[in-house]
Every structure is written in structure tokens, then in C-alpha cells.
Amino acid sequence: MRAAIIRGWRPALVILSLLCIWEIVVKLAKIPGWLLPAPTAIFKEMFVGFGRISAHLTSTISLSITGFIIGCSVGLLVAVVLHLIPKVQEAIYPLLILSQNVPIIVLAPLLVIWFGFGILPKIIVITLVCFFPVTIAALGGFRNTPHEMRHYMLMAGATKIQMFSKLEWPNSLPALFSGLKISATYSVMGAVISEWLGAKQGIGVYMTLASSSFRTDRVFVAIFIIMILSLLFFGAISLCEKRLVKWRREG
After folding, report:
1. Mean pLDDT estimate for the chain
2. CATH fold group of domain 51-250
């Protein structure tokens, strides 16, 4: 904990300096609040209007976590299947790459047309942005298993399942957690994008209402909340990594 605080003071100082420069520029240039609010005005609106934001915040967190769990589960399952069945990987892998070339902002309205305004199209959006980093990271971890260890287990008569469970899976955990960290940050943005489609609550809805009423300070409040949520999710995955991949830290 102490080491984390020591490492964290430099980026905290940089962020604080940027906020101070922002505040000074807005005050000296006399920029109107509807065009670019000062950081003090943004934080004031965040604390004063927290009761108004809390319901939206709870909805976005719930949607992000649900989509993250489903997306990462799908991504991990796809990675395991592709790794254990090479012929399937040869056929499916190009489709995975193509799936990431379709802009989510274009695909989202189609999902609403196909599946309505319920939670399903929102979960699909988050799944699409979360599963790919996990799949690629897990496949990379499986492939990076040391050859000498693989050769040793083959000489010992290990089956393909034993090779996977005893060697390839543990070896892939550091790479897998890298993919999970990326997906954790993507899940929040995916939830916000999905809420733009037609939700009743959520940070995306709050941002849309604030933008349409020219409440720029509330738009920045929503942006700051999205950034904070992404950092919290990233930190939670990093903490799980430290707990589960102890052998890497000790090494």
C-alpha cells in the first residue's frame, strides 16, 4: 500500500497541475461556462447534484459489470476452444478480426431494431467490446508456454487436457489478466454507448440530457465519472491479479 502511494504521487501531481492550468485559463480568458466550465464548477456540480446522478450511476455500474462478466466469459470460452481445436481457429480467427472492424456506433442502432430497447442489445454491445481483448490475450498466453516445459510434459506422457490444465492455463494467467484490464475499461464505455440507444437511466442518458440542454458542466461530470469508474474497474482487476498470480510477483 505504501509503495502504491509513493508511485502514485507523480501522476496525481500531473493531474492536479493540469486542472490548475485549466482553471487559470478559463478564469483569465473569461470563457463562458456553457462553452468550457472551470474544474471548480464541474466538481461543485458533481457534489451538489450527486443525488440526481446516483440512480444513473448505479444503472451504469450494474450494466457494466454484467456485460463485462458475460463478455469476458465468452472471450475466454472462445480462446479455449480455438486453442484446443486448431482447425476451428484457422476458420474462426479471421472472423474475430473482422468483428472488430465494424464500428459499434453503427452497429448499435441495428441491434435496437433487431432486439428492441431492452437490456439485450446493451449486453451485446458490451460483450462485443469486451470479448476480443480477452480472447487475443488468452490465446497469446497459451502460445507462449515455454517449449522445454511442454516437451518435458510430453515425455512424461501428459494428455492434451493435462497439458492445458497443468501448464498452458497457469502460464496464460498474466496475459489473460492484461486482457481483462483492457476489457474492464472498455466495459464502462460500452455501457455508456449502449445507453445512448434508448435507456431510461444511466450515465449515457444523463450525458445526453445534459448535452441537449447545454449543461456543459454536467457533461464533464459524466466524463469524469466514466474515467473514475474505468480506473476503479482497472484497479479491481489488478488487485485480483496480485492475489491470484502470486508466483509471478515472487519470481
Report:
1. 86
2. MetI-like fold (1.10.3720)
